[in-house]
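Possible regression after last week's pipeline update?

I re-ran a chain I had predicted before the update to compare outputs. Posting the input and the new output here so someone can diff against the archived version. Not blocking, just want to make sure nothing changed silently.
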Amino acid sequence: MRIAVFNTKPYDRRFLSEANAGFGHALHFLEPRLEPATASLAAGHQAVCVFVNDMVDAEVLETLAAGGTRLVALRCAGFNNVDLAAAQRLGIEVVRVPAYSPHAVAEFTLGLLLAVDRKIPRAWARVRENNFALDGLIGRNLHGRTVGVVGTGKIGALVARSLRLGFGCEVLASDLYPDPALEAAGIRYVPRDTLLREAEIISLHCPLTPETHHLIDAAAIAAARDGLVIVNTSRGALIDTGALIEGLKSRKIGAVALDVYEQEADLFFEDLSNEIVSDDQFQRLLTFPNVLITGHQAFLTEEALGAIAETTLRSAADAEAGKMLQNRVDTGRIAASK
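New output (post-update):
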């Protein structure tokens, strides 16, 4: 199958090329993101392969369909950047990678939490300047604290289990479909409002839907416990950035660790070190000493990249052979929690 692979970085090309040895697709690697101005580059390709910040709206899909594309292969779990109704109308199938390596994201989530809670980045910066003073670096134990996990799909379940069994936290969970195995491990499912009100730490692992957009907003922050710690490795728009900044300024929020950001599409995955970043909210977040931000790298392990490439190319092979698409996005419903 001829596949136009948009928004590629060196690691994408490496892992997709290695995995393709077992499939034999004709991969056309493109550096630009998929958007209306670049969609015509896919003409003559039966499939396009895209990532989280590519634009797959109705206009783009119209152009893709006119050029002969019949498959959109997302090399990620989320699909909120795809107009599923337009894809269905145009007869374009959409596939994703629902569970490439949940351990990669879960482990990174715990790393972010420990780093921001124990002030590890600040300590590292001090030591590099030969400053070994400990004032201002006092953290807190995780053991015994109440952590809320929103979304207990594969990633959220691993985080919840690690916090409960590994660190001895009291773990509250919120999900449309409670996991009996987690309940047996001592994790307690509660209504989302209860979780937001009672948790000292909140870790977000749910998909971005109309119901979860700005899940953490001004009202949620106001109702939360003082000193709330928030970790988000799921989707940036789960958090209202303006409300988050106000919560930090008022000291209602004690610390924040983000691997995703609401307006990340114009920032992440690019080297902007010589540019002026005009996103005032993002720049404001960087001024807080209790905020840690990474550039959407929680998935970035060798194991995860290999699994993403294998699953994506297998879906393309199945589509070409007319087989049932195991990782097809059902355009008629919202998928379960990430």
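Follow-up from reviewer: compared with the archived run. The chain has two domains: 2-100+301-321, 102-293. Marking as no regression found.
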